[in-house]
Fold:
Amino acid sequence: MIIQVLMVDGNGILHPSGFGIASHLGVLADIPSIGVAKNLHHVDGLVNKEVRMALERNKKSKDMLPLIGKSGQIWGAALSHEGCHKPIFVSIGHRISLETAVKCVQMCCKYRIPEPVRQADLRSRAHLAAKMK
Structure:
């Protein structure tokens, strides 16, 4: 099995340093990577409340809102899932375009969180719970 893309529970370039955990892992492994975050870092004037209000105004299923900072740079995208008011924040990690990253995430979203990230979270929690017994 060859890993084709890493989907990371964290940020790529949508990070105060411009280089989050998805970027680190992608560079170290030399594999395309995508950052999928549940919370928005305040980067380049981006504010969580304003992003949520913009998504509210545009209430289509699986909406995508580009996250454009005050400098004009596109940092990532906010995605909302049908029936959920909290968006997720997708950003480039390494060797992938934002358009491709968004498409990959949307194809994996059965629920709010993309299934690979959701399963990793569920299984790691189950593993830790079993170790604590």
In short: The beta strands are 6-9, 33-37, 64-68, 74-79, 88-94. The helical segments are 21-29, 48-57, 98-107, 115-132. The two ends are 33 Å apart (CA to CA). Residues 115-132 form the longest helix (18 residues).
